[in-house]
């Protein structure tokens, strides 16, 4: 099993969620996050004063999948979330040792 963490632009969330549902991936956790990489924030004007916005709003998707679903998931996220501009985000894939569904006690693949 793998955990896919995708950090994307907030306005891409609905499109990514719908595209993942089309390939059979429906379970995920979504968190509003802030951060920056090469994009390094931007300058805004507020009441006549300029100030730097260092942390930009992003959305993080956490998805736990069986190994055979990972590549389709990654391909879908990249295809849908990519605009070709700086700040499109990143995807991290890590191993998951164990999953337990609290309600039933089911484990691993059965718990996903």
Automatic annotation (TrEMBL):
Biological process (GO) annotations held by this record are: regulation of nitrogen utilization
Q: Which UniProt keywords apply?
A: Nucleotide-binding, Phosphoprotein, Transcription, Transcription regulation
Protein name per UniProt: Nitrogen regulatory protein P-II
* A Pfam family reported for this protein in Swiss-Prot or TrEMBL: P-II
Q: How does it assemble?
A: Homotrimer.
Q: Which family does it belong to?
A: Belongs to the P(II) protein family.
Task: Give the species this sequence originates from.
Answer: Catenovulum agarivorans DS-2
Q: Name one GO molecular function term.
A: enzyme regulator activity
**Residues bearing the modification O-UMP-tyrosine:** 51
What Gene Ontology cellular component terms go with this record? cytosol
Transcription as a keyword of this entry, yes or no, is yes
For this protein, the record's InterPro entries field holds:
N-reg_PII, N-reg_PII-like_a/b, N-reg_PII/ATP_PRibTrfase_C, N-reg_PII_CS, N-reg_PII_urydylation_site
Any keyword Transcription regulation? yes
């Amino acid at each position: 099993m793998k955990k896919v963490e995708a950090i994307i632009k907030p306005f891409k969330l609905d499109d990514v969620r719908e595209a993942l549902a089309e390939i059979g991936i429906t379970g995920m956790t979504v968190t509003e996050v802030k951060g920056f990489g090469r994009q390094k924030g931007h300058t805004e004007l507020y009441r006549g004063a300029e100030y730097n916005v260092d942390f930009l709003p992003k959305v993080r998707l956490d998805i736990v999948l069986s190994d055979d679903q990972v590549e389709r998931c990654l391909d879908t996220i990249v295809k849908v979330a990519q605009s070709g501009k700086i700040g499109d985000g990143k995807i991290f894939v890590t191993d998951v040792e164990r999953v337990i569904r609290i309600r039933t006690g089911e484990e691993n693949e059965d718990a996903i």
